[in-house]
Amino acid sequence: YFVSNISLKKSDGTELKFADKYFLVKESDAASKSIKLSDVPAGDYTSVSFMIGVDSTRNVSGAQIGALDPVNGMFWSWNQGYIFFKLEGNSPAANNSYFEHKK
Predict the structure, then answer these.
(1) Nearest-CA neighbor of 44 among 86, 64, 16?
(2) What is the distance between the alpha carbons of residues 91 and 96, in angstroms, rounded to a whole number?
(3) What's the CA gap between 23 and 91, in Å, rounded?
(4) Which of 40-44, 47-51, 99-103 has the lowest mean pLDDT?
(5) Whether 2 contacts 84, CB under 8 Å
(6) What separation in angstroms does the CA of 54 have from each of 19, 33, 96?
(7) Do the bridges between strand 86-90 and strand 45-52 make them parallel or antiparallel, or are there none, so unpaired?
(8) pLDDT-derived band of residue 21, with 50, 70 and 90 as boundaries?
(9) Cβ(32)–Cβ(74) under 8 Å?
């Protein structure tokens, strides 16, 4: 799944937004589950917000680079947009032991 539009809120109500940062989290890859933001100034941060998926502007902007690179397997080839999350794996209850779900 993608994590995007991260925002850190300070105690004074101001927000530090990372609107152009996209992270692809793969549960099978422990390193991808650690999201690191650079250039965060010291401060009294009280909350964090983020989006699961890709915002509508980027979703209709065609293939991108970095975490949004189609080589990562998260881009619909037939619809020219991003798969927001994908669940796939093996289960004895699934046909041929393999299952996949995309949204």
Answers:
(1) 16
(2) 9
(3) 27
(4) 99-103
(5) yes
(6) 11, 17, 31
(7) unpaired
(8) very high
(9) no
- Determine contact, residues 3/23, Cβ cutoff 8 Å: yes
Angle at 87 between CA 84 and CA 88, to 5 degrees: 135
Using CA atoms, how far apart are residues 90 and 100, in angstroms rounded to an integer?
A: 9
The full DSSP string for 10-41 is: ETTS-EEEEEEEEEE--TT-GGGG----SS--
pLDDT in tens, 52-99: 988 888 887 877 888 988 888 888 776 677 877 777 777 777 667 666
**Is this structure's pTM higher than 0.70?**
yes
Structure token digits, residue 12:
């004074």
Structure tokens at 67: 């975490």
- CA angle, 20 then 29 then 24, to 5°: 20
